[in-house]
Structure formats: structure tokens, C-alpha cells
Amino acid sequence: MSVREKVITLVLPVGQTEIDFTTALDSGFILGAELHSNHTDIDNYAEFGIFDDSGVAFSKPTPIDHWKRREGSGFADSYKPLLFETEHKTFQFKAKTKTPVVKETYFTLILMYKIKAECK
């Protein structure tokens, strides 16, 4: 197995409160994630969550600060731990704000995962 990154970016247009993106992930084990965003309006609560292919919150929507990389710990420990097998399932990634955004707002999620080697 090798450790890889998967980058998923959601862009919330001006005047909107919610954006989502659905995709299948490579077969592997998700170690953790970190989120980057240009959302700075502390009065406009923003959250991010991951849902499985049946619509159930796999990683419940939480404030975006909860997804930021932690400093002062080892590389693997600095990511928000997720620890799940992808099993070729489809996942929905969703960002939401309390009120419409006044500028185009991005949410970039970086997933760290171990990819299962394909037998050739």
C-alpha cells in the first residue's frame, strides 16, 4: 500500500448557502483529512460534512475549524482522523453556511489515504 492524497474542492457561488459534490473514491483506507477555505465571516457559521451513498452522514457536518490541520503533532496526527475503508462507494461532500455568502467561497478538502495495490 502507498499513501496518497485526494483533493476535493467545492466552490460556493455568491448568494448561495450550500454546495455539494458526489464522487467515488479509489479503493483504500482513509486516514484523515484537512480542510482549507477562504471563508472568514465569523458571523456566518460554516460547516462541512461527508455523507455515504445512502445519504447518511458519515462524518457529521461540523464547523470548518474542526477540519483544519492541527499544529504541534506528528504528520499523521495533525489531520482530522476519519479511519474508514472506501470500498469503491460513492460519497457526498457538503459545505453549508448559515446565510448566503457575499464572495465566492471555496472549501478544499485533502484526504490522506492508503491505496490498495492492484494485482497485475
Q: What do these coordinates show?
A:
This protein has 120 residues and is mainly beta. It has one domain. The chain contains no helices and 8 strands. The protein has a 4-stranded antiparallel sheet with strand order 1-8-3-6, with no helix packed on it. A 4-stranded antiparallel sheet has the order 2-7-4-5, with no helix packed on it. A hairpin with a 5-residue loop joins strand 4 (46-51) and strand 5. The radius of gyration is 15 Å and the shape is globular. The mean pLDDT is 87.
Mean pLDDT: 87
The count of domains is 1
Strand % is over 45%
Number of discrete helical segments: 0
Low-confidence stretches: none
Q: Shape from CA axes? A: globular
List the helices and strands and how they pair.
Elements: E1 2-12, E2 18-24, E3 28-37, E4 46-51, E5 57-63, E6 80-85, E7 90-97, E8 105-115
Keywords:
mainly beta, four-stranded antiparallel beta sheet, globular
Brief overview, please?
With 120 residues, the chain is mostly beta strands. The protein has strands at 2-12, 18-24, 28-37, 46-51, 57-63, 80-85, 90-97, 105-115. It has one domain.
